[in-house]
Design goal:
Shape: elongated
Structural class: alpha+beta
CATH superfamily of the largest domain: MetI-like
Number of strands: 7
Radius of gyration: 28 Å
CATH topology of the largest domain: MetI-like fold
Number of helices: 9
CATH architecture of the largest domain: Orthogonal Bundle
Strand order of the largest sheet: 4-3-2-6
Order of helices and strands: HEEEEEEEHHHHHHHH
Number of domains: 2
Length: 294
């Protein structure tokens, strides 16, 4: 793959500029401190004080990283007193944090929606069962991009939802439909004798489901759940169409600014890979822990 990429860049005469990318991940920012009034500078160890000519309260700068004034210097309003440098997150890191935040809340709500819809799918109540089937088929039969537009432009307008909430809601409802089917399949994979044995011990249907059936079903549904949540992280890139500055939108803006599409999108892909790989490792550890508890 690396060889094919190298040959391809030679054919299109592409000039790599990887040196442009780090500043969009993290960069050193300078913050200048200005004098709020005319006065005289008093420079002490670890402190700069601007004493006003009329004898009022001095303006104090504690522990400046770089001083621009000498002791006793005359200072005019607006003059630079000191410069402080600090590391700040670039657009890609901010976009990564936004993607992580959207994915986290979407996963939480998708689990809640999916568990209730999955239980409704196997319910004896015909109303709950038909409503859950309608929900699952409707959501799985329409594209996620269309659902995001509906949530933002229609439901979001009616309920006054902001972009972030509309994006999370669309992803949660979409993923919840798939989680519902995973939950249904997991519960139905447990032998009926487990429920019958729990009921024979005097447990109610609800208690038997919570304490006997669901714990076993969770172990079986963990791998497909992990795959669905990894897909959710990747699908979260679609919320950029409603102007949420996630990782994908940040990459698009940087690519348009720097004219370095290959470097930008390879970096974006790597950051997505970090998120999905981290989730995979977490689920694998959880699987091993649950397996050891048998």
């Amino acid at each position: 793959m690396l060889g094919a990429l190298y040959v391809a860049t030679l054919k299109i005469d592409y000039k790599w500029r990887w040196n442009r990318i780090p500043q969009f991940i993290i960069y050193s920012a300078e913050e200048t401190v200005k004098a709020p009034f005319d006065g005289r500078a008093v420079v002490e160890k670890g402190r700069i004080s601007i004493v006003p000519h009329d004898g009022g309260e001095p303006f104090v700068v504690e522990k400046p990283q770089e001083s621009k004034l000498g002791d006793g210097a005359t200072v005019l309003k607006g003059n630079t007193v000191a410069v402080n440098k600090s590391w700040k997150a670039g657009p890609l890191l901010i976009g990564l944090a936004t993607t992580l935040q959207i994915s986290f809340f979407s996963i939480i709500f998708a689990i809640i929606i999916g568990v209730f819809a999955g239980l409704a799918r196997i319910s004896r109540n015909p109303l709950f069962k038909k409503l859950s089937i309608l929900y699952v088929e409707l959501i799985r039969g329409t594209p996620l991009l269309v659902q995001i537009f509906i949530f933002y432009f229609f439901i979001g307008t009616v309920l006054s939802l902001d972009r972030f909430t509309a994006g999370v809601a669309a992803l949660a409802v979409f993923t919840g439909a798939y989680v519902a089917e995973i939950v249904r399949a997991g519960i139905q994979s447990i032998h009926k004798g487990q429920m019958e044995a729990a009921r024979s011990l005097g447990m109610s249907y609800t208690k038997a489901m919570i304490h006997v059936v669901l714990p076993q079903a969770v172990k079986r549904t963990l791998p497909p759940m992990a795959g669905q949540f990894i897909s959710l992280i990747k699908d979260s890139s679609l919320v950029s169409v409603i102007s949420i500055t996630d990782l994908t939108k940040a990459g698009r803006e940087i690519s348009a600014t720097t004219f370095s599409p290959f470097e930008t999108w390879f970096t974006v892909a790597l950051l997505y890979l970090v998120l999905t790989s981290g989730l995979s490792v977490l689920v694998q550890k959880l699987e091993k822990r649950m397996a050891s508890s048998d």
